[in-house]
Design brief:
Length: 156
């Protein structure tokens, strides 16, 4: 028995009812993916450590790296104890609040390289640069670099 093929009308995508906005990147980004009036630096400042912490841990677990190395790298970067870091996570501290309350390790300026398409040493916003330092440390750990090499030591 031949049944007629049911043809559905195309689904209405409520997100695409307005025109996409140009972003100067040579292509259009739909408005629902475009930043809502906030710059990347502002979004980074409002982000909490608790929101990215599980993602860092999951990335390292996928790569077979001990997640304790990430906590040790964060403690090294911020010169803080693990108890303090746990307080930041439990208290939903933003990156702005965290990096305003700590002084970075003196060797943090030796963290160099590209993360998320940006050279870490060339990032102009100090807060964004500090968060990208953390991203770079996690990235190096995930790539299998030894913890001792990831934690830079002062050059004499």
């Amino acid at each position: 028995m031949n049944r007629p093929l049911l043809v559905r009308p195309p689904l209405q995508n409520v997100y695409l009812k307005t025109k996409p906005r140009p972003h100067g990147l040579g292509f259009f980004i739909p408005h629902y993916l475009a930043p809502c009036g906030m710059t990347t630096d502002e979004r980074i400042a409002r982000m909490t450590l608790a929101s990215v912490h599980p993602h860092y841990l999951a990335k390292l677990e996928r790569k077979g790296v001990n997640p304790d190395h990430y906590l040790e790298a964060l403690a090294w970067l911020t010169q803080s104890s693990r108890e303090t870091i746990q307080t930041w996570i439990d208290g939903q501290w933003t990156f702005a609040r965290i990096f305003d309350s700590v002084e970075l390790h003196p060797a943090a300026h030796q963290i160099k390289g590209v993360i998320c398409g940006w050279r870490v040493e060339e990032i102009e916003n100090p807060l964004s640069q500090k968060v990208r330092y953390l991203d770079k440390l996690v990235d190096e750990l995930a790539k299998g670099k030894a913890l001792g090499r990831v934690l830079r030591h002062m050059s004499v």
